[in-house]
Amino acid sequence: MIVEHLSLKDFRNYAEAELALSPGANVLVGRNGQGKTNLAEAIAYLATLGSHRVSADAPLVREGCDAAFVRARLAHGERRVTLELQVNRQGSNRARIGGAPVRTAELPRYAQVVLFAPEDLQIVRGDPSSRRRFADQLLVQRTPRMSAVLADYDRTLRQRTALLKSARARGLKDAQLPTLDVWDDKLVALGSEIIDARIRLAQDLARPVADAYAAIAGADHRPELEWALSVSGADPEDEDSAPGEAAPTGATAELFRAALRSRRAAELDRGLTLVGPHRDDLILRVRGLPVKGYASHGESWSVALALRLASAELLRAESPGGDPVLILDDVFAELDADRRARLAGVVSGYEQVIVTAAVAGDVPDPLRAGAIRIEAGRVLGALSEHPIDAPAHDEAGAGPAGGDG
């Protein structure tokens, strides 16, 4: 897959922007705070339906505006398709593919992007929510319908937790809450699907992560991935609980339901849902030890890089549309010379790589193509000879994309 052209309106610090991109390496150069990462963020959002920097959409909309617009023309071999996204400060976002309205969850079917940024160090060093977020965004890219499953689980979780909080405030007992069983059924159905998908993901990532780690670190430190599951007794979100790593011994739904029954009294006492994928953690190890708390700085960077490169390899192997687009956002400045060279060697074979850097000299030679300068929310450089509004051979014979973006 190739991103041929990106258009932004009222996105972050861009009133308007037009960015033409080519196959191979593309380098966006500019001082910090000028908007390089905003361009990378816009492209990645189309693939993951989320930002790598913020959890809410409102910060993506330029100050004083109600909505931001992202439009990208993608090439899948000889096919062209235009994706459009309207990011609303409030309310649901809207999307179009080839000018036709679609659910936003359809966008990842066409846009496959893997972004690595300095924030990714939090995947290995941060709290469990960082690792869950990494896994869930990759799940959505591999299986776009998981976006709806995750959203439905979050809604069910909020409603069930609200009932528990209300019961706690009113002093109600289990027998006085017949509707709690209904919410349990919904939580188990959705949560079991998420747990099973995450376990399969960790299994699928195991070999690519080991290969990528060895390529980046130049050593085999036996990186491992395993989920610590609250349905099996672990609770990484509870500091007073031992972070066990028990794997399920039976059907996930049965384990989930049994765990809810066993924690019902504690949930009513605390007004919280204490069991489910929202409390699980992806345990990462090197040399047999947890990365968090034991790995060196260089090892932590290597694990974070390996997770993203392994993600790209999975998508590359499974996608009929070619390689995912690789985005390296301000990464090379954080790495030593050896890891810079190794990383450049690994990613240079992808169909398209987008690199952002404050200093072009930080980018290794294999990726140092014609640079595009970014300054104060403006793209300074040659634009495409074929603006994105021009008629394109969009999928299904669609004409030019409409909308306000």
TrEMBL record:
The keyword DNA damage applies. GO terms for biological process: DNA replication; DNA synthesis involved in DNA repair; double-strand break repair; SOS response. GO terms for molecular function: ATP binding; single-stranded DNA binding. Signal peptide: none annotated. GO terms for cellular component: cytoplasm. ATP binds at residues 30-37. Keywords: ATP-binding, Cytoplasm, DNA damage, DNA repair, DNA replication, DNA-binding, Nucleotide-binding, SOS response. InterPro entries: AAA+_ATPase, DNA-binding_RecF, DNA-binding_RecF_CS, P-loop_NTPase, RecF/RecN/SMC_N, RecF_2. Residues 22-386 form the AAA+ ATPase domain. It is found in: Cytoplasm. The keyword Nucleotide-binding applies. Belongs to the RecF family. HAMAP family: RecF (MF_00365). This is DNA replication and repair protein RecF. The gene is recF.
